[in-house]
Amino acid sequence: MTEYEFQRFWLPRTESRQSVRRLLTDAAEHHGWELARLRLFPDGRRRVTLRRRIIRVRSTL
């Protein structure tokens, strides 16, 4: 079974599309997050949900 941890946050409408793309690319490349959901609201706000896999280390003893 695959387990994920999630990070949810809001981005204001003042953030440009380019800066949002840069933020999400950085999170993916350097921290292992992937975009699970992005919702754009009529007033311009964005609700972002990122996820990354939890890797459990099992003892082999």
Structural domain count:
1
Q: What's the end-to-end separation, in Å?
A: 22 Å
Question: Biggest sheet, strands in spatial order?
Answer: 1-3-2
Broad structural category:
alpha+beta
Total helices: the number is 1
Helical content class: 10-25%
Briefly say what this structure is.
By secondary structure, this protein is of the alpha+beta class. 25% of the residues lie in helices and 38% in strands.
Supply database-style keywords.
alpha+beta, 3 strands, 61 residues, three-stranded antiparallel β-sheet
Question: Explain this structure to me?
Answer:
This protein is of the alpha+beta class and 61 residues long. It has one domain (4-53). The chain is built from 1 helix and 3 strands, in the order βαββ. The protein has a 3-stranded antiparallel β-sheet with strand order 1-3-2, covered by helices on one side. The mean pLDDT is 93. It holds the Pfam family DUF5703. It comes from Mumia zhuanghuii. This is DUF4177 domain-containing protein. InterPro entries: DUF5703.
Question: What topology emerges from the helices and strands here?
Answer:
Elements: E1 4-11, H1 17-31, E2 34-40, E3 46-53
Antiparallel strand pairs: 1-3, 2-3
Pfam families: DUF5703 (PF18963)
Protein name: DUF4177 domain-containing protein
InterPro entries: DUF5703
